[in-house]
Amino acid sequence: MSYVFIGLGLMAFLSASMLAIDVGMLMTSRNQAQNSADAAALAGATALVFDDYTNRAASGPAVTSAVRGGLANQVMGKTVSVGAADIQFLEDPAGEPNRVKATVYRTGTRGNAVATQIARFFGMQTADIVATATAEASPANAMTCVKPFTIPDRWIERQTPPWDSNDTFDLVDKKGKPLANPDQYVPATESGYTGYNAVRDKGMLITLKSDGGGNIAPSFYFPWAIPGSNGASDYRWNIGNCNQTLMPFGALMNPEPGNMVGPTGQGMDDLIARDPDAYWDTSKNKVVSNMHPSPRVVIIPLFDPVYYETGKQNSRNADLKAVNYLGFFIERMRGREVEGRVTPVSGLRKGTGFGPSPIFAFPKSIRLVQ
Q: What pTM was estimated for this model as a whole?
């Protein structure tokens, strides 16, 4: 009878040990595999935004970044199995192909199943672990670290097409009468958006100049006061640093009074000094920097040229409306002008008080959706 009780007790002990050791180990393995899948999906979505949105090939940056992200996160000290065939590109509910799905494996069919410790005595030598995750590069609806100067969003130039930096936005003639064929602007909330596009305009060189006496031109910037800031000192600091005030789309921006040309140049000098070795690689069409991201990649609000122009005609006080946010790499100061390149940037997705994301928002929010 003692032998019977000892045998039964040993079986109970082994069963409890299997629960304590193997089940715990497998739960840890599952969590680590999920981390690997999450990293792979996020890396793929990030590459879509910052490297090449249209390249979905096995050798493209989105797939290779996703694979590297998955392999960089081990499961119980061993590398997972994930290859190009395990990366899929899916559509969001609106039909936009902006999702990356990644699946990682530690299974017997892949030759890397997780070995058990106690369960092997009951005939279970290994266990299969599979994890999947889906990330999305979706339009943002809020921004932070916004700079205190703004330029007009792009429009369709009807007077002297095509649109270029020498154009001005015109709805009326010099006598104030409506033009027969006025310039056209469609905001990011509507189909047919005419503004800046992170894919099409990546690497575009823009020279920023102080405003031209109220004229709307692609390169003329208008200083504005970030909420809670006041005067030239705050204005300069906000250029050289990150003001974390959250800005929604559609926000009204109060123009900064006075001449801000000097503080703009000083703020730009401060900003460039934070990452002096960064540069734009024209062959790869991207920023090269030891800092990720480089502080010289800034967010510039884009204002609605129609709202501004009609405001001038109707003597409205708040003439600047932020309808989108542009990613911009500051290359250099040349005299009183600022030269830089359009570059993709990430944004935020906020809830209450920020409204829906514009369909064609320039910044993208990179997030896990599954």
A: 0.87
